[in-house]
């Protein structure tokens, strides 16, 4: 089972990101479950959402406490909460930032992870460019797909984005996600 | 057809397959997405011959259900938490009048203190309101049970409340196998009301009944609920025959066989519990689990039969009857009155507190060794409670308890010297 914890702030599309990931996994023939954290959900407040992906039905409903992947939509959260809590030894970290983990001052928390498992993507910038707003969720989804394309591929991601955001909004988000995918795929 | 959708969306689609004539809507978290999606389905023409009505309050929503069901319309609504409390007078009237309304309850705590997250306090507040109450474990069960609920309600002319955990089910995306319209039409015939307001054939509904017959009318309501004990498994079989899925009857035994320790619970928490129980069983511990689908009527004889060889029972529930303890456990004790085994009552998951494997493992380890108190509170931070008790004893003006406790645990940072 692959477990994902997404950290962000209310309004950044954290919950939608988890939903799109679960739908993308479904379109890749896998079982998945996504759910939001049960904390205060309001604009600006720290928000978490969870995804589990497996090849059999998932019944576990506790929050993801030992994630294989952490997605950090807002790096200011590093100073507010223990984002890295329970991260697996061979886990992945994907950060929405122009800065590297080292530049963000969190290199100690990620130095045990295998090479290439910690990626920073300027997702808000890419979102601004393609969507004219700073919502980073679909950009990060595209970026992660380049890191672990065995879980789901870009065609499943495209379907998932268009299911959650039908029409023009979804189409723009697909373009943004593909741009992030290309950026990370080339860097790898 | 397989789809990856959230619980609310799935329930809305399932209700639409049942061809309701009236959907009565008043939003309240965490069920709002259900009625919202039904509104979309009516507006875009997917759900035909259905009137979607926005009401001014939950009291209005249930009152409208009473009116439309009395007129012979298949009627649906959904609510949660304080919304259920606000409609409560009408909730009792709906059952007292024998109106086959189906309502989803997106289970949520009740304030004060205000809390939008999941527990079963709302459903428990209506446990004696005369409605059939069915608790589902997963979103697939939510889909299947809502379809069965309409047939159950209309066969008995009684309202049915389908209880699904707020957020945990309503907001989770999982794989759903949606029955087809043909299958649902085959299972659920058109609604023929047992009683109907009709100007051509006038009747009086909701007549005043004095002491001379009130006991008989109430006893009849009880008798009808007991009929549901036979009908619920029968409908589950019919559904299985058509749709090809066993979605459960009154109770569900998760590990058939005679376990020495049996955990009894309701709702979605069984998913996480099974992860723990499977590990313990693999280690050789004789432990199993039973979930209660039908809380009202309570299948006491069926439960008693299932537990003939149990050495102890651990009842886990997401509600607390202040001044007594467990509610489900009290019902289980009544069911097991002839069997002299310990019944441990465990209260957990209140107001959305996550129920996690390490806490459950510790609980069950203590349980199998008979080392639990009669009533145990999962992950209770007693120190915090004691601090507030001490404050209240020391000061007459110790202030609001909820805020004091939030300050003690650091959620509220504002410094105040108490």
The amount of helix of chain B comes to: 40-55%
Number of helices of chain B: 15
What is the number of helical segments of chain A per DSSP (H or I, 4+ residues)? 6
List how many beta strands of chain B DSSP finds.
15
Describe the protein's topology.
The complex is a heterodimer of chains A (188) and B (418).
Chain A (H helix, E strand, L loop, with lengths): L1 E8 L4 H14 L3 E6 L9 E9 L14 E4 L19 E5 L10 H4 L7 E4 L1 H9 L5 H11 L6 H11 L3 H20 L1
Parallel strand pairs in A: 1-4, 4-5, 5-6
Antiparallel strand pairs in A: 1-3, 2-3
Helix pairs in contact in A: 1-5, 3-4, 3-6, 4-6, 5-6
Chain B lengths: L1 E5 H11 L4 E4 L6 H12 L7 E4 L3 H13 L4 E5 L1 H6 L1 H9 L5 E6 L13 H5 L6 E4 L3 H18 L3 E6 L7 E5 L3 H7 L26 H30 L7 E3 L7 E5 L4 H13 L4 E6 L1 E3 L3 H7 L5 E6 L10 H8 L7 E5 L9 H12 L6 E3 L4 H13 L6 H9 L9
Parallel strand pairs in B: 2-3, 2-4, 4-5, 5-7, 6-7, 10-11, 10-13, 13-14, 14-15
Antiparallel strand pairs in B: 1-8, 6-12, 9-11
Short note summarizing the structure:
Chain A has 188 residues and is of the alpha/beta class.
Description:
The complex is a heterodimer of chains A (188) and B (418). Chain A has 188 residues and is α/β, with parallel strands linked by helices. Chain A has helices spanning 14-27, 107-110, 123-131, 137-147, 154-164, 168-187; strands at 2-9, 31-36, 46-54, 69-72, 92-96, 118-121. Chain A has a 6-stranded mixed sheet with strand order 2-3-1-4-5-6, covered by helices on one side. In chain A, α2 links the parallel β5 and β6 (118-121). In chain A, α3 (123-131) crosses α4. The mean pLDDT of chain A is 94. By secondary structure, chain B is α/β, with parallel strands linked by helices. Helix content of chain B is 41%, strand content 17%. Chain B contains 15 helices and 15 strands. Chain B has helices spanning 7-17, 32-43, 58-70, 81-86, 88-96, 121-125, 139-156, 181-187, 214-243, 270-282, 300-306, 328-335, 357-368, 382-394, 401-409; strands spanning 2-6, 22-25, 51-54, 75-79, 102-107, 132-135, 160-165, 173-177, 251-253, 261-265, 287-292, 294-296, 312-317, 343-347, 375-377. In chain B, the strands form 3 sheets. In chain B, strands 3-2-4-5-7-6-12 form a 7-stranded mixed sheet, with helices on both faces. In chain B, α2 (32-43) links the parallel β2 and β3. In chain B, α3 runs parallel beside α5. The longest helix of chain B is centred in the middle third of the chain and has 30 residues, at 214-243. The N and C termini of chain B lie far apart (60 Å). Classes of the chains: A alpha/beta (188), B alpha/beta (418). Chain A binds chain B through residues 15, 18-19, 22-23, 25-27, 31-36, 38, 57-63, 65, and chain B through 2, 4, 6, 117-118, 138, 167-168, 171-175, 268-272, 274-275, 352, 354-357.
